[in-house]
């Protein structure tokens, strides 16, 4: 009598309570975001230590973005068969090392080495961690979990950087990096304890990334992300001098304005998390439109403190929604290759971050902060128009399926999504 055919193994499902793991990943991204942008608040004392100009010190911000854009596909592809839990933990140790190097750097070149390590961690951790929510919690909670993970971005700006800057002012800038190194090690322990084994669902290869680039929705997502992130970082990088020169706000008032902006960003992040799974294109379009309105109106209404404050709140809500919208756009464009989609999201986001800051700086040097706000608003208008005109049929985000799809032989997951 022939043996009965063995039933295929069921696809792994997320744990019933994966929220501790979600919070650990969130804290990992919080450490990354805070470490990445901490030099903004400590630029002058670091430059004074190494006898550098502000422009040369600014390399600490440019390098991580460029390295992250390269590291996202490179590290993810070369470690494609490694358990993702192990990768997250290893990357936290590298980030702790980077903070230790920064805290003890006797020369600026070693500080730049630490920033290179930060860039590598950003690219790899974001690519792996940004799309993990659906593997850690049940499907119905995936949107909320994604919003929690991405809340680390505004939280890093609202809590991490001001706290690190204050600590640096009180006890020296090196102490801020020591504190970040300690927090990063604590997150490493939390990841070890809370995150379950996460074997790769699909090995990310360069051919998968190439196939994704051939899909119309992915190309629209890349264009929209490029435009809206350029609009944001090309303007927000220089919002402090705008508030000082045009609004005539003092340092304390500017701090209050930026804290309010950050709180609004957290609100926008969670609003987008609630809406994006149902109305992806509409949510992305509204975010881009609000960002455009805020930056275009700042030169007109931002001359007064009330107008500037109100527009910064609108701007915060708008940009708080952008990472969630962009990540969800890529993942729903390629539901069978979520990690590869996260690679494209991370690489495009970080490359555009560096480009936007550099482009905005060129405009500010050539003209003024008012001109950079207007040009950024125009770019955001183009982003909103692109999501409406170039993406028919993307009104709703497709839900993630847990069963392995049956695809025809010889076709990649990305091909099947066209």
Report on the structure:
The protein has 418 residues and is an all-alpha fold. It folds into 2 domains: 14-200, Growth Hormone, Chain: A; 205-398 and 412-418, Growth Hormone, Chain: A (Up-down Bundle), CATH 1.20.1250. It contains 18 helices and no strands. The protein has helices at 19-49, 54-57, 59-78, 84-104, 108-129, 133-136, 142-150, 152-171, 173-194, 206-213, 216-236, 239-245, 251-275, 280-301, 305-333, 338-366, 369-389, 413-416. α1 (19-49) runs antiparallel to α5 (108-129), α3 (59-78) packs across α5 (108-129) and α13 (251-275) packs parallel to α15 (305-333). It is globular and about 55 Å long. The N and C termini lie far apart (45 Å). Mean pLDDT is 78; it is low at 1-11 and 394-418.
Classified by CATH, the class of the largest domain is: Mainly Alpha
Average pLDDT taken over every residue = 78
* Uncertain stretches: 1-11, 394-418
Give the structural class: mainly alpha
User: Percent of residues in beta strands?
Assistant: under 5%
Report the principal-axis shape: globular
Instruction: Work out the count of structural domains.
Output: 2
End-to-end separation in angstroms reads 45 Å
Number of strands: 0
The major pleated sheet works out as: none
User: What CATH architecture of the largest domain do you see?
Assistant: Up-down Bundle
What order do the helices and strands come in, and which of them pair?
Elements lengths: L18 H31 L4 H4 L1 H20 L5 H21 L3 H22 L3 H4 L5 H9 L1 H20 L1 H22 L11 H8 L2 H21 L2 H7 L5 H25 L4 H22 L3 H29 L4 H29 L2 H21 L23 H4 L2
Helix pairs in contact: 1-4, 1-5, 1-7, 1-8, 1-9, 3-5, 3-16, 4-5, 4-9, 5-16, 7-13, 8-9, 8-13, 11-14, 11-15, 11-16, 11-17, 13-15, 14-15, 14-17, 15-16
């Amino acid at each position: 009598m022939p043996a009965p055919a063995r039933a295929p193994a069921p696809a792994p499902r997320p744990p019933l309570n994966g929220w501790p793991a979600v919070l650990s990943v969130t804290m990992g991204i919080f450490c990354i975001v805070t470490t990445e942008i901490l030099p903004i608040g400590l630029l002058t004392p670091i430059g004074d230590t190494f006898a550098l100009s502000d422009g040369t010190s600014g390399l600490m911000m440019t390098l991580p973005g460029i390295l992250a854009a390269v590291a996202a596909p490179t590290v993810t592809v070369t470690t494609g068969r490694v358990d993702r839990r192990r990768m997250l933990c290893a990357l936290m140790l590298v980030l702790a090392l980077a903070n230790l190097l920064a805290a003890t750097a006797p020369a600026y070149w070693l500080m730049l080495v630490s920033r290179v390590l930060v860039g590598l961690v950003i690219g790899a951790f974001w690519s792996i961690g940004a799309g993990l929510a659906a593997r850690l919690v049940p499907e119905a909670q995936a949107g909320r979990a994604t919003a929690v993970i991405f809340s680390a971005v505004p939280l890093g700006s609202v809590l991490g950087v001001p706290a690190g800057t204050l600590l640096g002012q009180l006890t020296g800038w090196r102490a801020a990096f020591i504190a970040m190194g300690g927090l990063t090690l604590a997150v490493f322990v939390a990841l070890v304890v809370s995150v379950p084994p996460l074997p790769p669902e699909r090995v990310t290869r360069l051919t998968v990334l190439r196939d994704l680039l051939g899909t119309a929705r992915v190309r629209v997502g890349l264009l929209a992300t490029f435009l809206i992130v350029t609009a944001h970082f090309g303007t927000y990088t220089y919002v402090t001098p705008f508030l000082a020169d045009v609004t005539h706000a003092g340092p304390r008032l500017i701090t209050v304005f930026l804290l309010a902006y950050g709180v609004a960003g957290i609100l926008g992040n969670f609003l987008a998390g609630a809406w994006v799974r149902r109305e992806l294109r509409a949510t992305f379009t509204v975010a881009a439109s609000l960002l455009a309105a805020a930056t275009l109106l700042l030169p007109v209404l931002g001359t007064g403190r009330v107008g500037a404050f109100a527009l910064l709140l609108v701007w915060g809500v708008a940009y708080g929604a952008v990472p969630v919208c962009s990540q969800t756009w890529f993942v729903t464009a390629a539901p069978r290759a979520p990690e590869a989609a996260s690679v494209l999201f991370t690489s495009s986001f970080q490359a555009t971050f560096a480009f936007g800051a550099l482009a905005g700086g060129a405009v500010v040097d050539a003209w003024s902060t008012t001109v950079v706000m207007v040009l950024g608003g125009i770019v955001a208008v183009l982003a909103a128009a692109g999501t409406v005109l170039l993406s028919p049929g993307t009104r709703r985000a497709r839900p993630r399926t847990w069963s392995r799809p049956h695809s025809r032989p010889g076709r990649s997951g990305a091909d099947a999504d066209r």
